[in-house]
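Trying the structure run again after the queue cleared.
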Amino acid sequence: MKKLQYNSPVILSFFIISFISLILGYMTNGYTTSLLFSVYRAPLVNPLTYARFLGHIIGHADFSHFINNMLLILVIGPVLEEKYGSRSLLTGIIFTAIVSGVLQFIFFPGSALLGASGIVFMLIMLSSLSGMKEGKIPLTLILVAVLYLGQELYSMIFVYDNVANFMHIVGGACGTLFGFMVRKNKYTY
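Done. Tokens:
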């Protein structure tokens, strides 16, 4: 009989913590989601303001929002965790969360941000760099960036919904930047 393997500790832990935060949100009628797992303009003297800069990536509005993010994270994440290492991937996730959280706090004071979409796009851009050779830029990176940026810019201009397209772009930029940093510095532990 084969045993289950916890093959991707960062990605699986991220999934489990996000699922727990989703259940807590349902149990509290959204109170915990708003209090802990969404980033929005709040007084800087409140310690939860700083926790939300990171915590917003594990909060989701509903089950559909959660599933849409987690399916992509579970498909892309384990391969990247194996390639770059758990610590490196965790560093990239934290970096992306804090950058997007701080930008949301500064530039969008009238709205809240929650969900792992920025992390999804960070992973997508990071994966498009995974086959990069020294001194060469992968064509997949250019194609993904053009298609992805085009879609997000179109949505920002013509689609009026509650999707944080700017933060998707931020997540993609963080993934690209992080990918180049990892390659340049051999930043895998």
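The chain has a mean pLDDT of 88. Worth checking whether this holds up in the mutant runs.
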